[in-house]
Amino acid sequence: MNRLYILFVVILLGLGLEAAGASAVSVLDFAPGVRAIGMGGVMIARIDGAETLYNNPAGLTELNGIGLGSSYSIQPGILSYGAVDLTFPNWGLAFLSLSSGDIQGYDSSGSQTEVLSYQDTALVFGFGISPKTIPFIPHLPLDFSLGGRLKYLSVTNGAAKGSGFSLDLSYLMTFPDRRLGPVSLTDTTVGVGMTNLFGSLNYENHSDPFGMTIVTGAATKIADLVTTAIDVDLAGAIHLGVEYTPVSTFAIRAGVFNRPGGMAVTLGLGVDVQGFILDYAYVSGPLGGHHRVSLSIDFSGIDISAFSRTFRRILP
Comparing C-alpha atoms, which of 305, 310, 303, 311 is closest to residue 274? Predict the structure, then answer.
């Protein structure tokens, strides 16, 4: 059992997370997405393609088409993290995985013992609802939407296995575009997210509750060039991020956030070529920085007619 505990501590250090009380720590506590990570982890007020499922599911109502994404994180040490997501207007699905692989165990004398491993997998279903799309609800002066995520988690920690469900709820309000003198403010949003309202990770002989968090945040785009965003976790964490888009196909991101042990700095890049999107993020950490990359497809941004014309030219 001591060896399993040591393995779990190693996993926590690799995640850069700190468990609060008896709360379960898992792949669901690992900040998802890549674009948001490059901006310091700000996400609650961001509408950002397929990553909207992770940021704030209420924003799924703003998606115009189908999105397909996958991401992979290169962690310091032994951890491997990956995610695959599929989103549609108003709903989305995701599969998350966190694994240490096999680790050879040793006793105090240096002799080999059993092989240890840590494996998390999670399934996520998210949905968003906008009152303006419901026929029997009268027109409201505010433009807002509501969302939720139902999550299933399965954990293997050495010989111990557990599973459980949890629920998130969220809110997103969108404001009209404004001008401050010559400067335009667009895509202004305010969001609130409540994570793990109920649920626990259930093992054979005990249960660990999922830690509940409440996050508020805001974002806006200045002069159609710079997006600024802030998230405030009511437990004390603050995330600040900025994204500069000199052209519509290229983005530069940076951010900071506080965590146990000090501040972390993030950097990111994004390239969008007709709906094919490549994103990269770097996060500094006490065990060394880690890198994350993602490849996603926004089908609403793909010019299908251009592919058709190219295909016809290839044909004899």
Answer: 303
Q: State how beta strands 213-222 and 226-233 pair.
A: antiparallel
Q: Which residues of the chain have pLDDT under 70?
A: 1-25, 74-78, 101-107, 115, 260-261, 287, 301-316
Distance from C-alpha of 83 to C-alpha of 295, rounded to nearest angstrom:
11
What are the Cα distances from residue 211, in Å, to 8, 74, 240, 306? Answer: 17, 26, 23, 48
Helix, coil or strand: residue 138: coil
Our count of domains for the chain comes to 1
The sign of the torsion formed by the CA atoms of 37, 178, 144, 232 equals positive
Q: Is the pTM of this model over 0.70?
A: yes
- Among left, alpha and beta (phi > 0; psi -120 to 50; other), residue 158 is left
DSSP 179-233: EETTEEEEEEEEEEEEE-SS-EEE-SS-EEEBPPEEEEEEEEEETTTEEEEEEEE
Phi, psi (degrees; rounded to nearest 5) at 176: -65, 155
Please give the biggest Cα pair distance in the chain. 73
Distances (CA, A) of 252 to 38, 39, 130, 194, 221: 9, 9, 31, 29, 14
What tens digit of pLDDT does each residue of 238-249 get?
999 999 999 989
CA-to-CA distance for 256 and 264, rounded, in angstroms?
A: 6
- Residue 156 · residue 72 · CB < 8 Å: no
DSSP designation for 311 = H
Task: Name the residue range of residue 169's domain.
Answer: 2-314
pLDDT, tens only, 275-286: 899 999 999 877
User: Looking at residue 150, which CATH number applies to its domain?
Assistant: 2.40.160.40
| Residue-wise DSSP of 45-76 | T---GGGHHHH-GGGGGG--S-EEEEEEEE-S
Contact 47, 264 (CB under 8 A): no
Closest by CA to 71, choosing from 62, 58, 80, is 80
The kind and range of the H/E element at 270 are strand 262-273
